[in-house]
Design goal:
Number of strands: 14
Helix content: 55-70%
Oligomer: single chain
Structural class: alpha+beta
């Protein structure tokens, strides 16, 4: 079967036809770039992902990292892949030229990441976490701390993590107990435990820079008392080199269902009362700083879920074309299973889920670029609020439907899909993490319903509506118009329900409202993905009107239109149930008692 990670037309479609990424080159920050430089970096990403990451994806799953009580060991191929990634400059890809970066648009970096996520999400995680941690240091740390840590994080000599979760607290960061005691020299001594820390221990780099959430003595209760600290594995000596081992120890590795190539660690800070930490920014502002990394990670999680789902879809597609079984009605000739209607249904669903999720996350990346380069303050405010509104959707919808796509890929392969001899079962196991980490999908639903829809007097929602209406004006083809009509009705219905949701959140109906938050997410996210498919259908229908289109491009665009039709007919109507539950404020979940289960 083909080892092609991504359809060669898909990235150019997403980047240049849907988003006109080339237009970013007219902005000062990206003026030294062109489509040629973007394409060259994409080719490099594809090559490294295909040659260095993809070949050991299954091997890494079968040979997860091991801890002998002193040291973590893993496959040599992981180190080789990491070195190839960092030596190519991808860790610093989005950073300024002055910082040693390539000053690439987030949209292009997102496209590059897609190849690595499709190839091997586990080995990719070490570099991705490092980039995100460096970004927090870049924006909020003192100049001294930046100089000490950031340059070597951007070269990959140091890697990074975020250490938030504690065994007793889970996602409830208000309840963390890790303490940071100030010292006379301005440093802090940390003491506490963290769990599920991805990349928390390994031998891939000279140092590991942990970003640790902790509370200082006398800090306010809850999230208002959280501060953020740099806690390196090795403290730096007078020359800025890794020196004495810090008092951070690996309590053990956690053995996961999937994503096995990324170490998941339980870390203990300050067992010997000598864990040195360095405050980032101001005390008690830690969660605000960390949210930069968390929000980046949330979009990244959604995108990763879409790409892992996409990899399974592409494998199932190739399998369905090759696997001969069964016959068409009235024929004695066996046919490839792709000729059977139910198999096509499952493949269309996978395509709709994954390429819809990809389009959404690309759109989110473009908003990041716009936020960094738009000068008009009113436009910046609208862009910021739209990005905030879409962030929980970018995380939750693809990470719910990406695993559904992987589940369908297993089904397409039948009995073979349920065996470890074929890769689709690993894709599902890897993807099953994504609805859980960086804030469970239930937390994303609560965030959307209780905060993001109302933030800044609903500026984000108003901006979204304006953009959808603008795109509706371009929808002239049969399928795009069908989506336009459906979205018009659904968006209107959703707006009509908003006053009732707001009232419920401030009344005795609060409990059923919170219990039904997933209905709000389902309805809203399906509308957003419908918008993404309307955009894809609009571009594809216009492209199909060209007379000189080659056969491969015709097939590609027809596939987009058909997937949009599938989404309009099979997926979008399912939100009627959610509308009914929101409207009635059904209390089936909230009124259930623990003793009744």
């Amino acid at each position: 079967m083909s080892e092609q990670l991504i359809h060669p037309k898909e990235m150019t479609f997403q980047l240049y036809e849907l988003l006109d990424t080339e237009a970013l080159c007219s902005r000062a920050r990206f003026a030294e770039h062109s489509r040629e430089t973007f394409d060259a970096i994409l080719d490099t990403a594809n090559k490294i992902a295909s040659e260095k990451f993809a070949p050991h994806n299954a091997k890494g799953d079968q040979n997860e990292p091991k801890f002998d009580g002193h040291k973590v060991t893993m496959l040599d191929e992981v180190k080789q892949a990491f070195d190839a990634y960092r030596e190519s400059g991808f860790i610093a890809g989005r950073y300024d030229f002055d910082d040693g970066g390539m000053q690439l648009p987030e949209t292009v970096i997102n496209a590059c990441s897609g190849y690595f996520l499709a190839a091997n999400p586990s080995s990719t995680a070490y570099a991705f976490l490092t980039t995100a941690a460096a970004n927090v240091i870049c924006h909020f740390a003192s100049d001294e701390l930046k100089q000490q840590f950031m340059p070597r994080m951007l070269t990959g000599e140091f890697t990074g993590t975020m250490a938030l979760t504690e065994p007793h607290a889970g996602s409830s960061l208000a309840d963390i107990r890790t303490m940071a005691t100030p010292q006379d020299d301005g440093t802090y001594r940390l003491k506490g435990s963290k769990i599920y820390i991805s990349g928390g221990e390994h031998e891939l780099s000279d140092n590991i820079v942990h970003l640790v959430l902790a509370k200082t003595p006398g800090a306010p209760e809850g999230v208002k008392g959280i501060s953020l600290f740099i806690v390196p594995k090795y403290r730096l000596d007078e020359n800025g080199q890794p020196g004495k081992r810090n008092d951070v120890s690996l309590a053990g590795l956690i053995h996961k269902m999937g994503y096995r190539g990324t170490t998941s660690t339980a870390l203990s800070f300050g067992d010997n009362d000598d864990c040195h930490g360095y405050l980032i920014g101001e005390r008690h502002h830690g969660l605000k700083y960390m949210f930069m990394m968390m929000n980046e990670a949330r979009i990244g999680v959604g995108y990763g879920a879409a790409m892992i789902g996409y990899r399974g879809y592409r494998y199932a597609l190739e399998y369905a074309k090759d696997r001969v079984q069964g016959r068409k009605p009235g024929s004695k000739e066996q046919v490839a299973i792709i000729e059977h209607g139910d198999v096509r249904r499952m493949l269309l669903a996978q395509k709709a889920y994954c390429e819809g999720g990809m389009a959404l996350c690309f759109y989110g990346a473009r908003l990041v670029d716009d936020l960094a380069t738009i000068e008009d303050e009113s436009q910046r405010s609208a862009t910021r609020e739209l990005l905030d509104l879409l962030t929980p959707v970018c995380k939750a919808w693809p990470s719910e439907y990406g695993p559904k796509a992987n589940d369908l890929a297993i089904q397409v392969l039948g009995g073979a899909g349920y065996t470890r001899e074929y890769p689709v079962e690993q894709y599902w196991r890897d993807n099953r993490l994504n609805p859980i980490h960086e804030g469970t999908n239930g937390i994303q639903a609560l965030d959307l319903m209780t905060r993001k829809l109302w933030q800044a007097n609903s500026l984000g929602l108003q901006t979204l509506k304006e953009r959808i209406v603008t795109d509706m004006e371009q929808a002239q083809g049969e399928v795009s118009q069908r989506l336009r009509k459906a979205l018009t009705a659904h968006l209107s219905r959703f707006e009509q329900l908003l006053p009732g949701i707001g009232k419920a959140l401030n009344s005795e109906q609060l409990d059923p409202a919170l219990a039904n938050a997933q209905c709000v997410m389902n309805a809203f996210a399906h509308i957003v993905i419908g918008w993404m498919w309307m955009r894809q259908a609009t571009v594809s229908e216009k492209a199909l009107s060209a007379e000189d289109l080659n056969a491969d491009d015709k097939h590609f665009y027809h596939g987009k239109v058909q997937a949009a039709q599938y989404y309009a007919a099979w997926e979008l109507p399912t939100i009627e149930r959610d509308f009914q539950l929101i409207e009635s404020m059904d209390n089936a979940c909230s009124a259930m008692q623990a003793e009744w289960f």
